Amino acid sequence: MRVRAITPIHVDAGELARRQRRYDTLAPPGVCVHLDDLGDGADVPRALETVDDIRRSEALVRAQLRRTDPAEYEVVLPDCVLDPAVDADPDQPVPVLGILRLATHLLAATGQRFAAVARNRAIADELARKVAGYGLGDLLTDVRVLGLEVSQIPDDTAWAGAIRRAVAGTDAPVVINGCSAVEVAQRDERPRVVDPTAAALRMLGLVGDLDLLLSTLGSRDE
Q1: 204 and 119 share a domain?
Q2: Domain that holds residue 187
Q3: Residues in the chain with pLDDT values less than 50
Q4: Which of 91, 112, 169, 192 is an S-S bond match for 107, by CB 3.0 to 4.6 Å?
């Protein structure tokens, strides 16, 4: 399965390469992900800090995915846990799937209640809104804010420490890490912190193994 990923913000060459290596490591056999930067135009967010940033990012991602060549890619998976442009769009040339949608539906299928963590309040609120839009709001216990800067996304130690502090006291058995580009340290303790990107890619691998068809209108909200 040939997958195109698109960053939700402009990132420099080093960060783009780091994220691409992460996809190369996480992608199961049969899934090949190519990551594109959203661009360096003046209108492209460098971070998602406000609702306006999130809305501009979504519009720009949508414009990019409409230019996806179906001869090169079978699916688009936006490189963002907020699932920008993951909805029914008659102008999209290939199916668009969402990291958050895939990961949360997997948890829902197992009957799991789950919490989430996010870098800031704007992202936390949008994540909760998207989960509710997928019809899973009753399973989401809360979204806790880590209070980190975008520059700390590659800092595994800082992120892991912030998660440990944020999830202290939660009664949810599972916590979704609310960033697509962060390494999640696997620990035996609870709550279990889920890497949504890893989960989404494994599900794409299963889709390929089962030879399931993907529809361009298959991203409609519940």
Answers
A1: no
A2: 100-195
A3: 218-222
A4: 112
Residue 186: how many CB atoms within 10 A of its CB? 9
Given this model, what pLDDT does residue 222 score? Answer: 43
Q: What total of structural domains would you count in the chain?
A: 2
pLDDT, position 136: 97
What is the distance between the alpha carbons of residues 190 and 145, in angstroms, rounded to a whole number?
19
Which pLDDT score is estimated for 219?
46
Residues 104 and 183 in one domain: yes
Spatial distance between the Cα atoms of 52 and 122, rounded to a whole number of angstroms: 9
**Is 219 domain-assigned?**
no
Please indicate, yes or no, if residue 214 is contained in any of the structural domains: no
pTM over 0.90: yes
184 and 122, same structural domain?
Answer: yes
Q: Write down the pLDDT at residue 189.
A: 74
